[in-house]
Design a protein that fits this description.
Blueprint lengths: L4 H7 L2 H5 L6 H10 L3 H12 L2 H11 L2 H6 L6 H21 L2 H9 L10 H4 L3 H15 L5
């Protein structure tokens, strides 16, 4: 189940935070490679976590605390890719569950199908995000995990 780049950009903060309207995958790729604004990190963390302590944990899982304090305007391309993966998987979960609260529960709770890992932790790596996406695809299309 592909996720529309617009939905990913919306979770990243949309045109207001990104400074550009994202409608295509190429536009999203260019924004990520240029380095996402630091504000996008806070926006995604708040969207996914729901409360301050969990948002801080999530932010520092994407960008270490000491590094984040040195960042003034933009994240590195690698940090931006990690953040985009989280936003993409979040958009996918919200599409599958059709409910932000249920998607939040899925993303932040240990999942037996993922070896007891929480999806928000797995999306820090490319392979981990593939695992989460595979599970979400299976849930969407009622396939065995």
């Amino acid at each position: 189940m592909p996720v529309h780049p617009y939905d990913v950009a919306r979770i990243l903060g949309g045109e207001r935070v990104l400074g550009v309207r994202v409608r295509t995958l190429d536009q999203l790729r260019r924004v990520v490679l240029a380095g996402l604004p630091v504000a996008a990190l806070a926006r995604v963390a708040e969207h996914v976590a729901g409360y301050a302590a969990a948002a801080a944990e999530l932010k520092y899982g994407i960008v270490p605390k000491a590094t984040l304090h040195r960042r003034r305007t933009r994240l590195s391309p690698e940090e931006s890719e990690r953040l985009e993966r989280l936003a993409r998987v979040t958009a996918m979960a919200e599409s599958v569950w059709e409910n932000k609260a249920l998607a939040h529960e899925f993303l932040t709770s240990p999942q037996p199908q993922l070896g007891g890992a929480r999806p928000v932790e797995l999306v820090r790596s490319d392979l981990g995000s593939r695992q989460v996406e595979q599970l979400l695809n299976g849930l969407e299309y009622a396939l065995p995990a």
